[in-house]
Amino acid sequence: MFHDLMVTWFEWTEKNGYPGIFVMMALESTIVPVPSEIIMPPAGYYAAQGKMSLPGVILAGGLGSTFGSSLCYLLTATLGRAFVERWGKYFLLPPSRLALAEAWLQQFALPGVFLARLLPVVRHLIGFPAGLMRVNFPQFALVTFVGSTLWCGVLAVFGQRTLGANPDLLKDPAALASVVKHDLIWFVLLVAGVGAGWLFIQWYAKRKVQHV
Fold it and tell me: Which of 107, 106, 100 is nearest to 124 (CA)?
């Protein structure tokens, strides 16, 4: 069932070009389980074939991601915590996921929004706690756009290289997603390392203040 959905999303994006990338990446930045790994790499590959431009592909992905995450922000900022806690489980946002995203945002603040756009799980959720905590929206949108565009750029360039060497992956979105996740684990670990370094710096700074 999910494999069939991935095929549908994949084909729809290919057919609709930049608007397709925008819409699919907007959905990817909400609770809809659209993997960016089956959207941006093929788009990068098609850009290499001359069907689209690489900057256009990356920009469409970054704008779509920002739009989707902004919708999540505005949803929770408007409806409030009580609504989300009561009804969130019915649209794939149970309290455990919300708590995870809130803890992340409390630890990292705005830099955490940037980091979240580069990591699995929290990437899709960060807009919800940002809305509940009323993070400055223009700053949230700007940081989201920068982080999302960077992630889309990494995936698009990866798609040019990997699919250029193995275009058969275009026939199997599930296999493509698996290859992307496996081969980009170094990037995820790098981002996680940056986050750990940020936490250490914060902890060390607080420790120094306490001992002054």
Answer: 100
pLDDT digits (tens, 9 = 90+) for 144-168: 999 999 999 999 998 888 888 888 8
CA distance 39 to 181: 13
pLDDT, tens digit, 9 for 90 and up, residues 185-198: 877 777 777 766 76
Angle at 24 between CA 158 and CA 47, to 5 degrees: 40
- Tell me which residue of 161, 148, 146 sits closest to 44, measured CA to CA: 161
Sequence-separated (6 or more) residues with CB below 8 Å from residue 28: 34, 35, 36, 39, 64, 65, 68, 124
Rounded to 5°, angle at Cα 87 from 86 and 91: 150
Residue 17 Ramachandran class (φ > 0 left, ψ -120 to 50 alpha, else beta): left
Structure tokens at 73: 């922000």
Q: Could you give the 3-state DSSP secondary structure of residue 117?
A: coil
